[in-house]
Amino acid sequence: MPADTRLNGIHFMLPTPFSEDGSVDVGPFKRLVDCAASSGCTGVVCLGVMGEAHRLADDERIAALDAVLEAAAGRVTVTVGVSSESNALVARRTIEAQERGAASVMVSPGRMAKPNDAVLFRYYEAVQSVATIPIVVQDHPGESGVFMSAPFIARLNAELPNAQYLKLEDPPTPPKITQILALTGDNMGIFGGLGGSFLFEELRRGGVGTMTGFAYPEVLVALYRLMQAGDVDGARKLFYDWVPYIRYENQPGIGLSIRKYAMMKRGLLDNFATRPPSPSIDKPTQEELDDILSVIPAIPAV
Fold first, then answer.
1. Residue 239 lies inside a defined structural domain of this protein
2. CA distance 34 to 268
3. Domain of residue 103, residue span
4. Partners of 10 in the β-ladder
5. Which of 182, 217, 175 is nearest to 40 (CA)?
6. What is the pLDDT of residues 127-185, one digit of tens each?
7. Of 133, 139, 41, nearest to 93 (Cα)?
8. Is residue 229, in this structure, part of any structural domain at all?
9. N or C terminus: which one in the chain shows less Cβ crowding within 10 Å?
10. DSSP letter (8 states) at residue 245
């Protein structure tokens, strides 16, 4: 089946696989994308924070992007992270992604010594000036160091035609969804992130899905489908059943390594290597994770 070109539902944030020698290994991308497609995800996202994009050389970015697009083969949409600290470079990366077949680009603010709305708006204008596909504005101040208010995000949506979506990772996310939707109405689709930590509440507030690297996307797909069907009680139970794992996986600093470890155990990755200085989890953490996985309910069928 062809990919649904609307951005909604569950989008699996892909890690970048590395070989034991630290080089990018594009081979596992096929397994990761196959998992997303078979799990019922609407799309995948590559070259974001989860993909350690800020630690990849330009040729490594292109190799990863091409591998993901080839693996997707029209089954799921592909959103590509193009964030940069340069207006010229973010525009160049946007052109690069859309020419290769991306469905949308995800753009987080670059770090700024003195963040201000005027400079930030020009940054997104640079993307709009070349974009022919939707822009996903990524609001993740914990990573970017830049806070974007609800009125500023609404301005991006109103004045930049392609700024149609938001990836909201500025907790508490549920109240901010309400604030933004009050300003944008149905004109902006809002996705959650943060490992799905607030997905149940985000969907109840009007979110359209999530973009996250949660290692068991089937759980999030099942939760989303229950909410779409109006089964709030069923969605709540599923979410609460998995909260122990969601909580543990979404730890600052080591969350990426935890997710890669879980994906390795699932056979989606050959190892759980990250690129230094990204930290790797120790043996006790692996054992704690295994203990949680041993007691939570089975992965729901989708």
1. yes
2. 9
3. 9-295
4. 210
5. 217
6. 999 999 999 999 999 999 999 999 999 999 999 999 999 999 999 999 999 999 999 99
7. 133
8. yes
9. N
10. H
